[in-house]
């Protein structure tokens, strides 16, 4: 039987939730439902949508927004922040190492084949350390809570994490629609994120850069599920949003085409996967990237953020070694623990997982978005049998974890206020000036009763995340 989920507000409201609880007690349900409808109208008007590939209605889909905020105390956030800084520093150290001397492999901490034979291990990145040795400039670390003081990392997103536009727009709509609630709290701001992102990107410009670095955001185009975010961030930073067709490389320098002629780009914040970045190096059929882009990087004329090759740190089998990775590079125990994970590539772990499939969550090591996974307690006998066959055929492609009792927060649904399971994605920026994190992040909420799947592609929604300022 699954453990009882931790109620973040509590029947006797915890101190951080005291003012919210009092406001909910005095606020009619009709008022909440009106504000909920207004929030949906706000998001529809500004065009913040999320496409789900294969869905005929993808262009019309909004991520549902819940107007009841998720609240963290200053003390809770301080502990999270320390753990996030430690973890992202370790991720960058790991990436520097595996594309360089590979000391962690020589020390026997992580198996050589797990890294070197991993589909996400990028051969063109070997020996090409990016400026300042930083690989993942923007990381999204997914955090789950299972108790009053128990926060754990569910997965690392070190390649092209998305969702920060929702964090910022969620705060904007709360300030507009519920000023009487926001005024009762001292909420740490998140609106400085675009400014921090721009300064982070500028700080990692190549040493050859002279003057203020020119930054651009590379998008696959408006058909991409996160296109709104690409456009939003470029606009907020005051930089150009470009597609591959807008760019060219001449003399190992990247330029964008403008009405005044080619303009040099020093830092490219790419939201395009490695395989599509440069058709001369990766997929030759890609029309999303730029021929010779990797030459501009290799000769020291361009910083690509996040760096090519960071996908190896997203791998869920590599994730299972993160406590050892943190200890190897920092000499400290991990502040934020991992969720217990069975690596199906190991015979003993595979045998255990096959025996306990109805109790476990099984994930593809390179999966994302809630796809390709089995949630044992909610699966049919047929689905369990199908997954057992997949595991026996390709055990290297899967990991398994216990079915966690994710914490719940009060959430406004059709029937009123009810508890729903949540997770949290803080966004961690790493530049030449160190690691910086805006207080909060994107809280994702499983809107279906009893569901543990918070991904927007699987019907989840979002909440504003409040970190109390003192």
From TrEMBL:
Domain of life of the source = Bacteria
Q: Which Pfam families match?
A: CP_ATPgrasp_2 (PF14403)
What InterPro entries is this protein classified in? Answer: ATP-dep_Glu-Cys_Ligase-2 (IPR051680), CP_ATPgrasp_2 (IPR025841), UCP005522 (IPR016450)
Q: Where is the Circularly permuted ATP-grasp type domain?
A: 69-446
SUPFAM superfamilies per the UniProt record, alphabetical:
Glutathione synthetase ATP-binding domain-like (SSF56059)
This chain belongs to the protein called Circularly permuted ATP-grasp type 2 domain-containing protein
């Amino acid at each position: 039987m699954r453990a009882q989920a931790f109620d973040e507000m509590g029947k006797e409201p915890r101190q951080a939730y005291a003012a919210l609880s009092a406001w909910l007690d005095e606020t009619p349900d009709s008022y909440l439902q009106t504000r909920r409808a207004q929030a949906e109208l706000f998001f529809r008007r500004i065009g913040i949508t999320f496409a789900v590939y294969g869905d005929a209605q993808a262009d019309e889909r909004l991520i549902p927004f819940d107007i009841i905020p998720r609240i963290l105390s200053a003390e809770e956030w301080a502990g999270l922040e320390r753990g996030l800084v430690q973890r992202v520093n370790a991720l960058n150290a790991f990436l520097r190492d595996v594309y360089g001397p590979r000391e962690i492999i020589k020390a026997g901490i992580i198996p050589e084949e797990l890294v070197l034979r991993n589909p996400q291990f990028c051969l063109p990145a070997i020996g090409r350390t990016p400026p300042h040795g930083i690989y993942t400039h923007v990381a999204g670390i997914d955090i789950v809570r299972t108790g009053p003081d128990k926060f754990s990392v569910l997965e690392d997103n070190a390649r092209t994490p998305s969702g920060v536009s929702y964090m910022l727009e969620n705060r904007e709509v709360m300030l507009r629609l519920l000023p009487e609630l926001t005024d009762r709290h001292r909420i740490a701001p998140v609106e400085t994120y675009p400014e921090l992102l721009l300064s982070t990107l500028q700080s990692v410009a190549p040493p050859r850069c002279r003057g203020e670095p020119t930054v651009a955001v590379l998008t696959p185009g408006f058909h991409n599920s996160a296109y709104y975010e690409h456009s939003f961030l470029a606009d907020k930073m005051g930089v150009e949003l470009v597609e591959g067709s807008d760019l060219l490389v001449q003399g190992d320098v990247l330029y964008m085409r403008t009405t005044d002629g080619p303009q040099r780009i020093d830092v490219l914040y790419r939201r395009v996967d490695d395989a599509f970045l440069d058709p001369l190096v990766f997929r030759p059929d890609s029309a999303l990237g730029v021929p010779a882009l990797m030459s501009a990087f290799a000769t020291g004329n361009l910083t690509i953020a996040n760096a090519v090759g960071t996908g190896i740190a997203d791998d869920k089998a590599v994730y299972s070694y993160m406590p050892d990775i943190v200890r190897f590079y920092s000499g400290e125990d991990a502040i934020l623990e991992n969720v217990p994970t069975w690596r199906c590539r190991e015979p003993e772990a595979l045998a255990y997982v096959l025996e306990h499939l109805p109790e476990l969550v099984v994930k593809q090591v390179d999966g994302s978005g809630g796809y390709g996974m089995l949630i044992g307690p909610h699966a049919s006998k047929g689905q369990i049998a199908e997954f057992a066959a997949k595991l026996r055929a390709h055990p290297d492609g899967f990991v398994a974890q216990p079915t966690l009792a994710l914490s719940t927060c009060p959430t406004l649904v059709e029937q009123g206020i009810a508890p729903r399971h949540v997770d949290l994605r803080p966004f961690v920026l790493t530049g030449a000036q160190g690691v910086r994190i805006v207080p909060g992040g994107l809280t994702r909420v499983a809107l279906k009763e009893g569901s543990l799947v918070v991904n927007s592609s699987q019907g989840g929604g979002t909440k504003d995340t409040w970190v109390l300022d003192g």
